[in-house]
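Action item from last meeting closed. Structure (152 res):
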């Protein structure tokens, strides 16, 4: 295992099938600082914090095939209505509850709820006044700059 400066470790993964060795990547989210979601997507109306866990930048692997992390919203925060034209998205609620909008349907969801949101489908999240919420998110596109976010 090779320690990376301040973030995660690479683990030799052996033969990748074509004679090339590609390292695996291991990180604990406590090793990562929260980032404002608005600083990543350049929308000052978007609220909450993210721990990016796996993506091309963090792993250093140009062939990384997805992007995922943990998204935290405090009570009363909003992740405004938007879509991703070039990427499907997956949510899995870890803790707390929130009001989700996916396409034209609104519903409250809590721990254990999984959602698949196809590319091009509008969605939003609002946390109520009493509960913070955390979810695991994943995109089918490994680079945040390539998911095609459009705010609605």
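Sequence:
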């Amino acid at each position: 295992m090779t320690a990376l400066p301040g973030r995660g470790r690479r683990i030799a993964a052996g033969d990748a099938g074509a004679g090339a060795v590609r390292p695996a990547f291991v990180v604990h989210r406590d090793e990562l600082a929260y980032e404002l979601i608005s600083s990543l997507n350049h929308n000052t109306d978007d609220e909450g914090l993210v721990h990016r866990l796996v993506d091309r930048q963090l792993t250093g692997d140009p062939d990384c095939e997805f992007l995922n992390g943990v998204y935290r919203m405090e009570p009363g925060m909003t992740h405004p209505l938007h879509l991703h034209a070039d990427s499907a998205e997956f949510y899995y609620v870890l803790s707390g509850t929130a009001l989700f909008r996916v396409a034209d349907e609104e519903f409250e969801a809590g721990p254990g709820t999984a959602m698949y949101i196809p590319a091009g489908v509008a969605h939003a999240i609002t946390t109520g006044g009493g509960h913070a919420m955390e979810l695991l998110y994943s995109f089918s596109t490994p680079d945040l700059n390539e998911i095609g976010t459009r705010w609605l």
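Note appended to the action item: The CA atoms of residues 62 and 104 lie 36 Å apart.
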